[in-house]
Amino acid sequence: MLGILALLNYLLVGIVCARVFLHDKSPLLRVWLGLSFGILLMMWLPVLAAFLVRFTLLAQAIAATLANLFAVAAILYGHRHPHAVRPMEKADRNMLIVLCCFVVPMTILMGYLQHTHTLREVDGRLHVGQSTYGDLCMHLSIVTGLRNAALPAEYIILPGSTLGYPFLTDGLSTSLYMLGVPLRLAFIVPGTLMSALVYAGYLLLAKEMSGKTSVAVLAAVLLFFNGGLGFLYNFDLSGNDLSKIQEIFTGYYKTPPNLPDLNLRWSNLVVDLLLPQRTFLGGWVLLLPALYFAREAFMQKERRMFLCAALFGAALPLVHTHSFLALALYSGSALVYAFVTDREKQARRALLIGSCLYLGLVLLCAVPQLVAFTLKQATSEGFIRFHYNWVNNINGQFVDFPPWFWLKNIGLPLLVMLFALLDFKKHHRMDLIGASLIFLTANLIQFQPLDYDNNKLFYIWYLLMLPAAATWCVALFEKLSGSRARVLLAALFIVGSTLSAALSMGREVISDYPLFWESDVALAAYIEEETDPDATFMTAFHHNNPVYTLAGRKIVCGPPMFLGTHGLDYRRRMADVSMFYGDPEDNLYILDLYDVDYILVTWQERSEFIVDEAALSNLFPVVYETDGVTLYAAEQ
Predict the structure, then answer these.
(1) Among 18, 186, 572, 603, which is disulfide-ready with 176 (CB 3.0 to 4.6 Å)?
(2) Within 13 Å, how many C-alpha atoms sit on residue 553's CB side?
(3) At what angle do helices 168-178 and 278-300 cross, to 10 degrees?
(4) What predicted TM-score, i.e. pTM, was given to this entire model?
């Protein structure tokens, strides 16, 4: 398929560029950073071209040409400035074994979950899993709606409103979809690839932060198998009745890391975020390289590292805004730390020059993104306000005693993180200070209407803290070398830290829900083939609406569950839609108000509104009717 070839081309371009400009780095680092750069290019270049020629096949061709020109320029630069390329060393081979043992099985798991959780056909229906039942529909609307769209694009679930949501990860899937990759695979292929880059990237970053492979492995296990002490609640509530444990695998969101009724909100990173939240996944693909380069830049004061950090950092606002904010907080604290601790005049001068270059390039590229997209929503009601103690604060009252809230959510890793802070080893100080600033900011300021979404900052605090915590654990294990109990202690710590995650992952592996029924699939196929791509439909507000998800057509008003969390004002439209369905004849002006081309009546509309179907039949011609689904053309 042409789309897969295009993806491989971008990845190859990234590897070629990394080989030339990061010749002194480990081959493993070069491959990881090169592949991540290839993803960055495939996210950004078609979008830049689309500002000139819409998000069309022509934009894809322009973007691919630019990417190949980058590769040619890198090769020519390498010939004119030859450098010896660092070969694979013994330490790299050992790390490669570790990567294979951890990343390969984790990627296989993610690939399987992508398969089961993304529009899997079962007897004509399209099935998903528990964690993608809600979020997938939002991402489908962006992927299908971006086709041939002018930029800045608009929400197809609220036409006329600028798409301020970070959409570049979904834009990558749109590129694949337009180049012939089936919609389902346009999600699965990049989702699995990007997950592998996140797994490998964090292992390599943790190794750089700690200097030890064993520490990197433990940090990665604690990061990706996070879940806190929620399993204690499930087991305690079960008593002699195992129904509470069985409910983990049969109920809807009854897993230990995510029980809001018990104030357990430390959702598992793999199945609750990387799998369903594609913006979060794409953000981490770029964030981890950005953190790697930023650390190197502030420690080594090397201008090349500042440039690389700026490249990845500047790309983040339209990929994942929370990751961009966290990187900014980390970089600011790292600058202050490096300036205070390094008293040498020459080093400070190099630091300031590099930092100005870093800041200048990021602002030059990021400010237009923030002004044109992000700030249009972030200035809406519910965004950016003081809110202390995250989801533990409801109407000014703590749900749990704050230390207990954090301990039961983070679990045993929180204790070793505190022990690491007490030791505060010099080589971890910059990372710990940056992590602390992110934690304080996320604990004091809410950046979106839904307070839960601040977890996207807390997870970055967590990933920065874990190498120091894992270092403390490994050092303790080594000090207990004469004790036979150390293996038991280590096993208890690992099990206590990861059991909630294991249960949550097990639940997702077997979860299975129909998202679209046979009639939905048939309706979407008709709309794709027989209606204008710019047509607007009047429908109900359900989230699994085939009109805007599978067919990529605009609807008057989408689901409040999406629009409300994006800070969009939809209430007037909801009232107008409801009013029209109840009395079409006296509210014909609503069709003109929202430029409606088609009116849909299914069981969803019948259950949500009082629909005057007799009036609709008298006023409008039927263009499609089957299995209780009626589509009217909005023409009299």
Answers:
(1) 186
(2) 28
(3) 120
(4) 0.95
Helix (H, G, I), strand (E, B) or coil at 127: strand
Q: What angle do CA 176, 67, 183 make, to 5 degrees?
A: 5
What does the alpha-carbon distance between residue 473 and residue 210 come to, in Å, rounded to a whole number?
A: 12
Order across the sheet with 536-538: list the strands: 554-555, 536-538, 598-601, 629-633, 622-626
| Apex 78 CA angle, 72 and 80, nearest 5 | 105
- For residue 373, what are its two tokens? 């997209």
Provide the greatest CA pair distance for the chain: 88
Residue 545: how many other CB atoms lie within 10 Å = 28
pLDDT at 238: 64
Residue 27's pLDDT is: 97
Positions in the chain whose pLDDT score sits under 50: none
Residue 89 DSSP code: -
SS3 of 372-424: HHHHHHHCCCCCCEECCCHHHEECCEECCCHHHHHHHHHCHHHHHHHHHHHHC
Tell me the C-alpha distance between 374 and 165, whole Å. Answer: 7
Question: Helix 183-210 to helix 213-224 angle, to the nearest 10 degrees?
Answer: 140
Dist CA 452 CA 408 (whole Å)? 16
